[in-house]
Structure formats: structure tokens, C-alpha cells
What does this fold into?
Amino acid sequence: MFAINRILIFFIFILFCVPFIFLFEFGVTEIFNSIENLFSINYLNLITNTLILVVSVTVTSSIIGLFLSWATEMCDLKYKKIWRILLIIPLVIPSYFAGYIFILFYGPKGEIFDFINSLGFTGNIPNIYGFWGAWVCLSSLCYPYAYLNLSAGLKSVDRKLEDASRVLGYNHFKTFYKIILPNIKTSFFAGGVLIALYTLSDFGAVSALQYNTFTLAIYTKFRSFDLNGAAASSIILVLISIPIIYYAINMSIINSSRISQRPSNLSNIKLFDLKKYQPLVQFILFIIVLISFIIPFIMIFTLISRTNLGIYETFSVIKYSSIYNTIIGSSLTGILCVIISLLVILNLSKKNTILRYFFESVMHFGFTLPGIVIALSFVYFSINYMFPIYQTWVILILGYTVLFLSTAYGPIVTSVNLIGDRYINASKSLGKGPINTLINISIPLYRPGIIKGFLNVFILTAKELPVTLILAPLNFNTLSTVIWDNLEEANFSTAGVAGLLLIIIIIIPTYLSIHIDDIKIKFINRKK
Amino acid sequence: MIKNDEIDLEVSNLSISFNKTKIIDDISFNLGNGEILSLIGPSGSGKTTLIRCLSGLDSPEIGNITISNVKVFDENTNVAVENRDVGIVFQDFALFPHMTVEENISFGIKKNNNPEKKTSSIVELLLLCGIYNLRNRYPDELSGGEQQRVALARSLATSPKLLLMDEPFSNLDAIFRSQLRIDVKRILKYLKITCIFVTHDQQEALYMGDRIIVLNEGKIQQIDKNINVFQKPQNEFVANFIGLADFIEGKIADNYAQTEIGTVEINSNVSNGDLVEILVRPDDVSIKKNKSGNGFIISKEYKGMYYIYHIKLNSGKMVKSLSSHINDYDVGIKVDVQLSPGHPLVCYKNKLIV
It folds into this structure.
């Protein structure tokens, strides 16, 4: 039993090393073969494009997130329950979809253009292709990551500190800057790291908006069968992301417990009185929701309604197989990630720190690598060593697993650490074997973490595009590839229907995965 | 360091409600320059709410608050907390976790003060509060008692006109508490700070306060010198809340009252023949072992230096008696119970002092 587990963990470890082997095998030789290319204008352009986008999206989203969390958590904002839900909805919109919707609304011949034309103006509207479009579009998708992290941070700050500072002569805003902000620093940077990684590895939005970053360049090279070039670009992309990855792993952001050590007594919190600024704040929130949620959804329905077909025919265009593939593929990946996480956590005990640290680092690296790099490395791996699984379900799910395992591992390890091993020891002392204990004690106790981990992987896999495009079997569709293919062919109503279906599938898992922390806290309290 | 002009707190007709429940119900009191006032009451009596309203962290419904001749609250005024010149020491300290001891203390001092004066006053405070050696540590590296000293120093650094201490010792171990109590009182008296000290511990209230307010259900039960609160409680609630108390029925004859455990001198305005309840503290009651006594011991508390005996009288009435540790009696034995206060006692009718 023990030996089998060890062997399994060894193979999982190898699986996670595949991207590294690929990068070294192709990329390093290519880089040395054509070192002059590295310093070519082309590469420098890619590097600056990528960095400028990452920095600007991260900063913009973090500032928006900070403002929003201040408004909903620290002020006497009206309708805050509704705002809290509306503000995180962009999480369910895949970036490639958002990119196209963005063009169809703001772009040349888009809705805005038509509207202005109908008013009798015939001038050009600003070009949204390239940086500006990518910046606004990605910021409107990414701010919820900052918002969620900062709201959680604000909830865990001891609010007596605010009282103490006020009494010492500082007003609300000075207090926020000098006292509250330093105490939610971790949440602030955690959100920033997630956004930076999202932007760095984003393929859909930049590709739709034609902003040339590394992910787009890698995909283009792969499509022109330049595997060496793609690998070399991947290495540079990885090098750019290393500082962020190092920071993320060091702060154990991905892996950290989101449960506050000292939850404030929320009923007793003094909220900032917005007074005459209430309408202004409401208006700003409305603008953010308008851009990030209302316009995209109106556009989805507009696209769907543009078809000549009836409702039934419109929906029947989508093959059942793509819905089925999305749900089954995401579920299988989720289950596999949960099993692997439990296998690792329960077998590599805390005493085995070096081994575990090594494994966790490799695993987090998987999440932080752009999907496109992982997809390419698995193409290379399966062609060379495991041809039978090339372009099968198996390789696709292994690719997803390497990409998303850490999002399941984090919540599960948090649950395991919170529960501790006393219940398991108690079970063992009552004469139950390891399997009996696992099924009757461990898994029920770790359930909140397991559910959250599963949901995280499910949502991300359902939205995933580049890995699916590259690794999926021939003629294999998921909703995300259906959206992508139809968008590319300007078949917008079908894309709209597929997009709507995808959002319907992931919207409830998204809500649950965000709010399961509350469930978890209740659960732990009950245990105490 | 501390301005020594006419410091004074005036509170009149203050009422506070939350969700339509009255927390503080029409209270008024004054506080003199450099005076320490203990505010005591059971949980939920409105102590913390009152403190938060005085500081400006919460707003009263109605009433007037004047701090050092500056009106900070009435129907037209509500000075913001940061402009009230009030210091608070919080129950759980609320030290800023990302700042060292010294940074915490200097946080409230205005920047336009000249830097030398600022440094010297911080050093003075660090020394006064006995935390000079800890000045570069962070709050999580301090013990509870040390954190309490830092919290006190931080609130004194701004030279507040009024210091509010909200159950400052309740999170500390008993052994540190008594030492800290002595130190804090010494510091407050040395700096002549006007202070309201909230507590639910009667020993602490009696030690810290020049005067004591006893608060219950949002109303002031008594505001008086600490000696008077103990010796002449205004009503039975105060008598029970501050110190141990029993009430024995007595019949007045001249300046004496006859009770089932003896006749005692009284200090009340009553007429002959009146029936009253007489407040009896355990130290007013002495017992002696006697097989034909007028009561028997039903339980005893060993307090180290003394015993508290719980005695049931033949009439069925209960009284408590304080007895030296030499007198170790068994539970269940018969005793002679005798009133021997050595001073006049006070009388009550309908739960109020007469």
C-alpha cells in the first residue's frame, strides 16, 4: 500500500516535470543556436509589450479592487449585497470571449460605431486594437481577483485598530492609508500576483485584440510548425514570470489559508458614512459593472438574437457532445486533481519537508506557466515517448491537471492543516485501519476543502482554451473551442449561444467556490 | 507634557439607543480636573457604549457632552472622534501590529511638534511606563502586561484632555493585574490625567477610582466617593454589586435596630417602630461554636487569610460571616451568630437607602 503510493507520487512528479524537460530539450538549444535572435527588435518588442500589459493591468485592477473593497466592506454603501454579487460576475466570462465582445461593441463597425453613425456623425472612433483594448478588457476581467482578496483581507483586519487610530487624531482616509492598508498588504499583493499571472499567460483576449505578447507569439509559431521557436519564446516567457512565481511561492499565496486568525465581530463594525458622496460611489460602481458585466451580457444576447433561426434551432446548433465534453472533462480533471492532492498531502507528511517543498514548488510552477507552454510540452512528450496517448482524452486531462492542480491542492491542504491529525489519531486508537479512517474520518472532515478544490479546477478547466485547442483529439469540441471556432469564423450567434451555455454551467460553481469559505468557517466553529 | 489648565468633563441628559433598545438612559455626571472615575456595572450595563459615545466612536441620541469647556456633542454639534482630544486604552489593546513600540507611541503625536521635543516626550513616556527596553519590539513580541503599558503610553502621548480606559486589565493574568493597577494609578496621578476607568471588577473599581459610578441597565445607580459606595450603597443593587452583602430585618428603637442576631447602632433617618432591612457585610458578623447556637454553617470558602462562612439562621435567613483563618469550623456545626460591626449600619426600605 505504502509502496504503491510512493510509486504513484513519483509518476505524478515526473508528469509535472514534463514542461521543464521540453523547455530544456528544445528551447535552450534553440536559444543558443540563435542567440542573436534574442536581441532582435522582434523579441525586445515582445518583451516590452508583455511587460507593459502585465504592469498596467495589474496596477489598474488592484486599484479598482481596492476601491471596491473599501466601498463594500468599510462604507455604509447602499445595496451592498447586490454589488458584492455583481462585482464578481466577470469571473465567469472567458477572456477570449470577452476580447471578441469588446471588439464587437467598441471596435470599428461595432455597436458604438453604429450608434454614433445613426446620430449622423461619420468620424472615426479611437482604435481599440492593440494595447488600449487589451488593457481595458483584461482589467475589467481581472479586478475581481483583487477585489475578492482585499475584501477577505479587510474582513480579517482587527477593526479596533481603526478606532485606535481615529482616537489618536487620524481621519478615516489617513487611517486607511496608515493602518488598514499595511495590514492587508498580503491580500493586496496576493491579488496582484494572481492578476499578473493571469495577464502574462492570457491567450484569448490578446489574441482577439491583436496585441502581440509572448503567448500569442508562441501560438503563432506552433501553428507554423516552428516548435523550436515556440519553445525558445516559452523559455523567455518563463524567465519573465520567474520573479512573480518566486514571490507567489514564497508568500505561499496560492497555498495560503484564507481564514482569518482573528475574525472581527462584524456586527460591531463602524462603517464610514459616505453622506453626499453616496451617489458618486454608486455611480462609479455602476460604471464598473456596466463595462465588465452589463455590456458583455447585453452583447451576448444581441449576438444570439441576430440569427435568422428560431430559439430551438439556435440552441440545437450547439452539439450536445461539446456540452458533454465540457462537463465530463472538467469533472474528471477536478476529481483527478482532488485525488492527487489527497495522495500527496496524506503521504508526504509534514516531516518530509524537503520532498514536499520540492513537490509543491513544481506544482505551483505548473499553475503559473502559461497554458500554451504546458500544452506544447505535452505534445512533444506524447509524440516522443507516449504516442498511444497523443491526441486522446488522457493527454488532455493530464495537461489540465498539471495546469490546475495547485488550485485544488491549496484549499485541501488548508482544510487538512485546520483539522490537524487528532481525529485521525483518535480513529486509529479505536482500532480502525488506514483505509477505514480515510473514508470515515478524513474525507468527511476535509470535505469543504475538497469541494472548493474540485470547483476551482472545474471552473478553470471549463473556461480553458489553449490547452484544449492544442491537446484535444481531432474533431473534439468543448464549449470553449466551439466559442473560439465560431468567433474566428464570424459566426457570432452560435458563439453567443455557446458562451451563454458555458457561463450557465460555471456560474453556480463559481459562486459556491467563493462562498465555501464561509461554510468552512461555520464548519470549523461547529467542531470547536 | 500634559496641559494643566481647567480639565473637566460634563455629561448631561445623555441617552443612547441601538435598534430601539435604550443602552444608556438619561444620565448626567461631572468629572473634575485630574480625577479618576471608576465606571462599574455588570455585562451589558452600557459601560463600553458610554465610553464609545464620550470618545466620539459612536453617537448618542440626545444629550450634551462638554470636554474641557469645549462642547463636543449636543443637538447641533458632533465633533469627530479624531478632533476630540480624547485618549482610549482598549480592552484588547489594539496596538498596530505593523509598528514597533516606539512607532506606536509616536503615531498620535502631531508632525508640526518640534522633533526634539517629540523625542524627549516619547522617551519620558517610555521610561515612565517602564517599557524603554522594549521600544524596538513589535507588539506580537510582547507579553499582555507589556502590551498594556504600551497601549497606555500611546494614549498618553497625545496629551489627551480625557483618558478613557475600557476594561484595560481584563485580558491579563491576575498576578500581573495587581502590579499593573498600582503602576497605572501612579502614572495617572503623576500626570494629573482626568480618566474614566471601566471595569467589572469591584476590587479594581475601589482601588482605581477617586469616585465610582455604578451603572445598571443604562442608569446610574450611584455616583459617589469609593468609600461611600461601599459603606452607604444607595440601593440593594449597589450593595450586592460592590462587596458581599446580606440584609437582615430589624425594628427601630431610638438609634438602634433590633434583629434576630443582636441589636446594632444605625445611621439612618428612621422613626421608632419602623421595620427596615439592614445591610450586613461579612465582617460585621461574628460566629462562635456553640451547640445551642442560633444558626449552622452550610458551606465555607477558604480564602487563604480568612474564611467566608455561609450560615443559615434558625429563622431560615442566610448570612455570611468573615472569620480569621485560625477559626476553622466544620460544615454542619451549630454556631452563635452575633452582629459586631463596630460602626453604625445603614438601613433600606423598598430596596432604597433611608
